[in-house]
Design goal:
heterotrimer, A mainly alpha (99), B mainly alpha (554), C mainly alpha (240), A: 99 residues, mainly alpha, 71% helix, C: mainly alpha, Four Helix Bundle (Hemerythrin (Met), subunit A), 6 helices, elongated
Chain lengths: 99, 554, 240
Amino acid sequence: MSEHIVSVRVYFAIFLALLVGTALTVVAAFVDFPWRFNTIVALTIASIKATLVVLYFMHVRYSPRLVWVIVASALFWMGILFAFTFSDYLTRGWLSIGY
Amino acid sequence: MQPIESFEVPAPSKVNYINAQYGLKSWLLTKDHKRIALLYLGSITFFFFIGGIYALMIRLELLTPQGDLLQSTTYNKVFTQHGIIMIFFFLIPSIPATLGNFLIPMMIGAKDLAFPRINLLSWYIYMLGGIVTIYALLAGGVDTGWTFYTPFSTTFSNSYVVAAGLGIFINGFSSILTGLNFIVTIHTMRAPGMTWFRMPLFLWSHYATSLIMILGTPVIAITILLLAFERLSGVGIFNPALGGDPVLFQHLFWFYSHPAVYIMILPAMGVISELVANFSRKNIFGYSFVAFSSLAIAVFGFLVWGHHLFVASQSVYAGMIFSFLSFAVAIPSAIKVFNWTATLYKSSISYDTPMLYALGFIGLFTIGGMTGLFLASLAVDVHLSDTYFVVAHFHYIMVGGALMGYLGGLHYWWPKISGRMYPEGWGRFSALVIFVGFNLTFLPQFVAGYLGMPRRYHAYPPEFQVFNVLSTAGASILGFGMLIPAIYFVWSMRYGKHAEANPWHLPGLEWRTQSPPLTENFEVTPIVTWEAYEFAPPEETEVVGKFGPELERI
Amino acid sequence: MIESHATTQDVHGHPALQHHFENMEQQREAGTIGMWVFLVTELMFFGGMFLAYALYRSQFPAAFASASNHLDITLGAVNTAVLIVSSFTMALAVYFTQVGKLRPQIICLILTLVLGVTFLGIKAVEYHEKYTDRLIPGHLIPSAPFGPDAHALHLLPGATLPQVEMFYWIYFAMTGMHALHMIIGAGLLTFLIIYSIKGRFDPEYHGPVEIIGLYWHFVDIVWIFLFPLLYLLGRHFEHG
């Protein structure tokens, strides 16, 4: 079976992208965006960086479908933890049943 | 496919995995999944007895309404430790680490699990966690309840919370490594021809269980660490002094601990599928429904944890969502019960000991499951929460369900594991004693709880005494009933009748090896060309069209 | 009857082929899937702490911003760059192993280790700063309980000192757990370097290099999120 070998060129390009992303996120941190956009920008940049690491450094782009399913499931389950816990905290004042 | 009786069982060789090598080192450094299963069997039995002793102390104290046998603080430690030992050191590992470890490679036609050394490591980690926990118990015990609720556990308890938590944390790694091993094995090491839908349902259940182990256990791991950090630093995220919320602990704790109950029951369900199909000599009704329901239970099980927080100041809106989902999670379990029942219908049932346990499971699990629905209803839960109704509910599932599945599986596969038969008469007798003792113990607890008796109290109002006396009487019978298999299993290893390769005459792949099996299970990798539970050869059918064979040719 | 044929195991199998696998391909696949499954557990593990962070940050935005601003952004950014370079060298190490270039492989592994230790060194400096500023929460260090100079913290309006302590509790929990994973990674890299020097890996067998690489990249990803969430969340309040 051929194991896909990612080239040094690709690794270098991703590496540069990650450094650029880091610089970008530091610069963006000092800009006063309206509403919650500072957080959104920071998380977006971080997510893009993480995606690049996962796809290329961790070879997921060239991995069998099972690995894609595993990564997606992990993210989905983190999502469950966050979503359902926040469903409690965000709705705590909504319904009053006497206490 | 040829009928079962005519397929060739390899001529039994004198060598098997038990006598292949002698000496303590060959057992303690083994990579053989079967030997590791036996290591687990021994240690799990040990912890079960410790947990049982705590149960005995609880039932003795509760014979009388006054708190006369134990002080309240001691009683708190007793029920806490009963819970910790039984849940983390018995129920969660029991079937996967013993029967799962032993059978999964054999059922898929492999020589071992994917990572044999990690398998052995998981046992050592289990033992280390056990030793740390026992240290905590002996040093002074822990009294927070197995649920470790804050702020009592972080701030006010003077017991060995961190030590006990550490023991459970370590044990969690054992669970994770076992689950990891099973998932990788089932994905990558199935024999040629063993497609997913030819796998016995025991494998589907263990696969689903492993998913839960992987996704849930890390969360309790971090929760325990955060608890320890808070206890050691004196402040933390669960403490209102810093703006923290004690209920956050409950969210994090139950995110794992609810799916954990499915870790405890799914493997037993897998065993029951095997027992029901094989002892009624009929293909399981609705194989794919049962297979998918295992996965559904694993997934849905992660969406319901908030039903433990209904009366803990969780938002009512969240409570409604969790309540609805808790009703939904009962559906896949019910599907299984219907399918088992349909399998039994018009089948050829033989009432051997394993089948007795399976039948007991179906009834008792149904009761346990249905009482869960009462607890899932928001309004009813306000009344029943923290009463003995809850205690009875989960014991019906964990003892009436999981333990019965474990015992049934042990009896069923005992000839394969040990090469000996257990005494059938004693087997049936003890199954009945256990069934009677169990119901006498826990049925009165439903009533007591409904009438208002709180749980975790060492003293109670006198009107509840009759239920407690019945319960303790039942517990004595149950304890006696469980001693009998302990004795005859050990007895059988020396004096039991020698078992042939396929004593029950069944089609499963694990029965196509000698009893006990070779170290490498199969001399050559089998090629699987039959379905799971294929009891009768497919009938020879002539293809006849609607208008008859002559017209088909036109 | 079990239709069977001769075992597919090659008599001249690779010395690293374990007895229960049919061939190297199956062994490699199993190892890779196994590490990915383990990384799922790691994600859920850190996930609990990210949840606590998200919850309390949404409740105490001013305190969290103030506390964050007191972290050393230069050291944090340098550490981020250090880890990114280390991920690059780790990926290169895997590459050189795949193409059979032993010396570059060993050099890259050593570089990765050195960068990892550098990260930990910088972290130690930061922790020491927190210690001298009395920002270690509670009485974790009994001789230096939490008690910073509130004035020096430049608290934003609405921030209270207990909430700041909450931030630092979460900061130490998350970065401490991350650092522990780095230490474990450094240990794993040491093993890799030793085995590489002994010539254990070749283009046909290099599973351990790959899967430890996966672990290392994961730890990097955790930091990629920790850095902006812990160090940068309040910087836009700083000026003015």
